[in-house]
């Protein structure tokens, strides 16, 4: 039986791998000239540089049951964990430091040490069970109800509430920085789930990078797919499913906006209405910098961090996230920065360093005509706030606006990188309130993108879950 996967992001490639392993003849179609979606790397800062075009650090990738089952390490994937998983600089104070060790992180938080251990020790002890249940549909009975119940007691609250249990700005900042991965204000429900999960994974795997760039993840998936007889065709934009012939299975690594544009596909009316109501949320403006040395952080320990959450206090981050969500570019945006050369020197010429960073900005944000990269300037201002002298070290700078990101990957609608907003019920019901979100209601057509659970990230679980659904349906049909 033939299977066609439309889109070659990590989810599409992962789906193709599992279908090929089951014996289907798999073809992956990609509109761009190269595979990988937002998980590609390229020398955008000049010869000898490796810059991740999308995701850079991979706490969920290193913990992914799908990647583990595919044994991607046999195809050259190698994870590198930094000395410090994440740092959170603060004005006039020591930074918060998130180590790949729960006890060490807690010990650095002084009077908040016991509270930090209490919040994270249980999830760390049950992390495999929690991952097994949380990296799929949430609207179902969990396979590990006790572990999920314990995690669930921590999950539903706004992180602004949870942070009240801590006195230090360091602990509160570490919670806020991890929660900000949801691209939501700190007062939003369920942001505590992001804070606890990301902080727990820091203790488990240290938020690693892929040796040689995120492209290494894609290359390993491609190697696994082709080893199983799968094929990939680039430069193949799909506008009409009737052009595919009559494959037994079609998987779409697309978001609702692209799905609604497809011809030759009849969705049930209720499903189509749900897709039309899908919201994409705040976007990002990305800045890549080539530096002639390490970032001159005010505290040298930050230079050892793979990820740096730049935004100041929890209250400052909440204000910035609220402005971005409401359509206003913050003067001091929340900035996500990674330092890949802190752990992988192969990414830049000898003596030089790469700083990868983005700010949360309004959906589809465009800078003023006189300065279209105003958001990028504010990224640099925020970083220089904690790293005085940064500008003097910049050798080369490249900006990627929300429009640029969407041009690179059509799934990044308006510069939104998570396949759709996590606000409200979209965090639980992706893309609609059904028991199995990977079925589209159209016979033989499945959705495997980040618009399904568990959402954005380079982990392949949306692809795995969709492929397993398709195979189960094929088995039921004999």
Report on the structure:
By secondary structure, the protein is of the alpha/beta class. It has two domains: 2-41 and 211-278 and 420-476, FAD/NAD(P)-binding domain (3-Layer(bba) Sandwich), CATH 3.50.50; 83-206 and 283-361 and 367-400, Alpha-Beta Complex (Polyamine Oxidase, Chain A, domain 2), CATH 3.90.660. It contains 17 helices and 16 strands. It has a seven-stranded mixed sheet, sandwiched between helices. It has a five-stranded parallel sheet with strand order 9-2-1-10-16, with helices on one face. Strands 3-4 form a two-stranded antiparallel ribbon. A hairpin with a 2-residue loop joins strand 6 (84-90) and strand 7. The chain is globular and about 65 Å long.
Q: What's the topology here?
A:
Elements: E1 2-6, H1 10-21, E2 25-30, E3 41-42, E4 51-52, H2 59-63, H3 65-70, E5 79-80, E6 84-90, E7 93-98, H4 102-107, H5 113-125, H6 127-134, H7 145-154, H8 159-162, H9 169-179, H10 191-205, E8 209-210, H11 215-227, E9 231-234, E10 249-252, H12 256-261, H13 269-276, E11 283-291, E12 305-310, H14 314-325, E13 335-338, E14 353-361, H15 374-386, E15 394-400, H16 402-408, E16 445-447, H17 461-476
Parallel strand pairs: 1-2, 1-10, 2-9, 6-12, 10-16
Antiparallel strand pairs: 3-4, 5-8, 6-7, 11-14, 11-15, 12-13, 13-14
Strand order of the largest sheet: 7-6-12-13-14-11-15
Architecture of the largest domain, CATH level 2?
Alpha-Beta Complex
CATH topology of the largest domain: Polyamine Oxidase, Chain A, domain 2
Number of domains: 2
Return residue spans where pLDDT drops below 50 for at least 5 consecutive residues: none
Provide the residue-averaged pLDDT: 95
β-strand amount: 15-25%
- The tally of helices reads 17
């Amino acid at each position: 039986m033939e299977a066609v996967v439309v889109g070659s992001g990590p989810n599409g490639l992962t789906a193709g791998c599992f279908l090929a392993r089951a014996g289907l003849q798999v073809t992956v179609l990609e509109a761009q000239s190269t595979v990988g979606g937002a998980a590609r790397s390229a020398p955008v800062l000049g010869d000898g540089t490796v810059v991740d075009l999308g995701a850079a650090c991979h706490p969920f990738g290193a913990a992914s049951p799908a990647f583990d089952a595919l044994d991607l390490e046999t195809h050259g994937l190698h994870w590198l964990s930094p000395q410090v998983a994440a740092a959170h600089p603060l004005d006039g104070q020591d930074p918060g430091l998130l180590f790949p060790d729960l006890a060490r992180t807690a010990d650095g938080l002084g009077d908040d040490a016991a509270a930090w251990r209490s919040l994270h020790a249980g999830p760390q002890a049950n992390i495999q069970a929690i991952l097994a249940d949380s990296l799929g549909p949430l609207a179902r009975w969990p396979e590990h109800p006790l572990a999920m119940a314990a995690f669930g007691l921590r999950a539903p609250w706004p992180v602004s509430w949870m942070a009240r249990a801590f006195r230090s700005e360091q602990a509160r900042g570490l919670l806020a920085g991890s929660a900000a991965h949801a691209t939501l204000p700190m007062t939003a429900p369920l942001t505590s789930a992001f804070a606890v999960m990301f902080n727990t994974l820091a203790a488990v795997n240290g938020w690693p990078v892929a040796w040689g760039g995120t492209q290494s993840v894609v290359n390993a998936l491609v190697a696994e797919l082709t080893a199983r007889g799968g094929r990939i065709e680039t430069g193949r934009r799909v506008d009409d499913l009737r052009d595919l012939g009559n494959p037994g299975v079609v998987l779409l690594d697309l978001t609702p906006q692209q799905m609604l544009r497809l011809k030759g596909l009849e969705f049930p009316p209720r499903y189509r209405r749900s897709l039309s109501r899908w919201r994409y949320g705040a976007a990002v403006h990305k800045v890549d910098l080539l530096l002639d040395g390490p970032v001159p952080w005010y505290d040298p320990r930050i230079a050892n961090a793979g990820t740096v959450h730049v935004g100041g206090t929890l209250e400052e981050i909440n204000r910035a996230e609220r402005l971005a969500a409401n359509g206003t570019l913050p003067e001091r945006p929340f900035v996500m920065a990674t330092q890949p050369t802190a752990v992988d020197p192969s990414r830049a010429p000898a003596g030089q360093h790469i700083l990868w960073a983005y700010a949360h900005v309004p959906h589809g944000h465009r800078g003023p005509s006189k300065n279209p990269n105003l958001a990028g300037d504010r990224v640099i201002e925020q970083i220089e706030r904690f790293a005085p002298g940064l500008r003097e070290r910049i050798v080369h700078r490249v900006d990627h606006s929300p429009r640029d990101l969407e041009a690179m990957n059509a799934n990044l609608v308006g510069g939104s990188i998570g396949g759709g907003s996590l606000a409200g019920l979209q965090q639980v019901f992706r893309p609609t309130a059904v028991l199995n979100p990977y079925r589209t209601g159209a016979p033989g057509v499945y959705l495997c993108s980040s618009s399904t659970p568990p959402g954005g990230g380079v982990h392949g679980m949306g692809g795995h879950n969709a492929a397993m659904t398709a195979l189960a349906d094929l088995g039921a049909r004999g």
